[in-house]
Design a protein that fits this description.
Length: about 110
């Protein structure tokens, strides 16, 4: 059973960019209400699709370097990485169907 893993500026390269499977990064913040709304949906997807995609969370307040490097201007921002590169990104809390469509772009 998969679950969303926390990543940091220090672990981003190894956990996301060097991953052998697609990674969905949830750029979020503690104070963000929509982030809280999307979190259980991401946990659900992490459990259902653990063999196909890795779901990670990056707190933009605690890890500003990575958020700045990928020009994250609002939270939540969900970005799919494949082969070390961002493939697709969407800002705002989205329903599960939209998040699954986002992931499909990298599979």
């Amino acid at each position: 059973m998969g679950s969303a893993k926390a990543v940091t500026d220090a672990t981003f390269v190894s956990d996301v960019l060097q991953s052998d499977k697609p990674v969905l990064v949830d750029f979020w913040a503690e104070w963000c209400q929509p982030c809280r709304k999307v979190a259980p949906v991401l946990e659900e997807i992490a459990g259902e699709m653990a063999d196909q995609v890795t779901i990670v969370k990056l707190d933009i307040d605690a890890n500003p370097e990575t958020a700045r490097a990928y020009r994250v201007m609002s939270v939540p921002t969900l970005t799919v990485f494949k082969g070390g590169r961002p493939v697709q990104s969407v800002a705002g809390a989205k329903p599960k169907s939209d998040i699954l469509r986002l992931i499909q772009t990298a599979l």
